[in-house]
Write a structure and sequence with these properties.
The protein has helices at about 5-15, 20-25, 30-45, 60-80, 100-105, 105-115, 130-140, 200-210, 225-235, 275-294; strands at about 50, 55, 90-95, 120-125, 145-150, 160-170, 180-185, 190-195, 215-220, 240, 255-260, 260-270. The protein is an alpha/beta fold and about 290 residues long. It comes from Selenomonas ruminantium.
Length: about 290
């Protein structure tokens, strides 16, 4: 059994797609397929159900995933602990964020954290979406990550930071701007400007549209929120975004959705992770910051 095989397996368990796994790990898809098959052959078990388009783990795969994640987390902890012998006396946190959080919540958080804990450095990585942050946590590449997702009771490796609502963003001259609230049926004929397909915003908006009975006409997907906002202001389409990224904008109008579309923001760490003193200081600060400022 090779460490590389465990890395591939943990990644595909989160992304549920061989192609995305290969792209994320910067390897070829045949390499991923070969590694997973070799792992299954060694264990004498089928770990992945390939009968459908979306990859899912078998019951045996789910059980093995717990062991693989513990190994990946232990390897990451070992690397971090060995840094002491290289003379790295400062505490260091590997921290991952999706673009929306990195741009709108992180700057003030980082400033206040460095003021309170000058001896702890943050190595911050921006990832394309929350799924990739979760995957990097499972692989042991990150100590903590902030992710966006559906509103639910946080798991044992999650800390609730805030709950927010999404609103329809419209150009000021749009006919729907006169309504106090907007239903999904009201926007069936609109052009949508969205974030990338793997983001929570994209998937949740598409799901709600499908429930009402239509497929949204998505004319552009981009990870650049400033671009989305400016295109909405220019009348090129509408968007649906969390209030925390649009609250100070005056170049377009916002209207609440009916029914409400919520988003939950959590601080996550890997399952089974043993928190160090530095980790405890960081998570404690994040909790206090969220209670006061979010």
């Amino acid at each position: 059994m090779e460490f590389r095989q465990l890395e591939y397996f943990c990644t595909i368990s989160h992304l549920k797609n061989f192609t995305r796994t290969a792209e994320t790990l910067h390897v070829s898809q045949p390499s991923v397929t070969k590694a997973i098959k070799a792992l299954e052959a060694e264990l004498g078990l089928v770990l992945i159900d390939r009968s459908q388009k979306k990859v899912n783990l078998t019951p045996e795969g789910q059980a093995f995933l717990l062991h693989a994640q513990k190994i990946m987390s232990a390897a990451s902890a070992a690397k971090k602990d060995m840094a002491r012998y290289r003379g790295d006396s400062r505490g260091k946190i590997q921290f991952g964020l999706p673009p929306m959080v990195e741009a709108y919540l992180f700057p003030d958080l980082f400033t206040k954290f460095q003021s309170s804990f000058p001896d702890i450095s943050l190595d911050v990585q921006e990832y394309s979406d929350s799924d990739e942050v979760r995957n990097r946590l499972a692989l042991g590449d990150l100590d903590f990550g902030i992710v966006l997702g559906e509103v639910r009771t946080p798991a044992e490796n999650e800390m609730l930071l805030m709950q927010d609502s999404m609103s329809v963003c419209l150009p000021p001259s749009h006919p729907l701007a006169s309504q106090e609230k907007i239903g999904f049926g009201d926007i069936a004929a609109e052009k949508f400007i969205m974030q990338q397909p793997h983001t929570y915003q994209y998937k949740e908006v598409c799901r709600r549209c499908n429930e009402v009975g239509f497929v949204p006409n998505i004319t552009l997907c981009t990870s650049q929120l400033k671009t989305i906002k400016q295109l909405v202001a220019n009348g090129m389409g509408i968007s649906i975004l969390p209030n925390f990224v649009t609250g100070t904008e005056n170049i377009f109008v916002r209207r609440p959705l009916l029914p409400n579309l919520s988003v939950q923001i959590t601080l996550n760490w890997s399952i089974g992770k043993q928190l160090t003193d530095v980790d405890e200081q960081f998570s404690g600060f994040i909790k206090d910051y969220a209670e006061k400022h979010l």
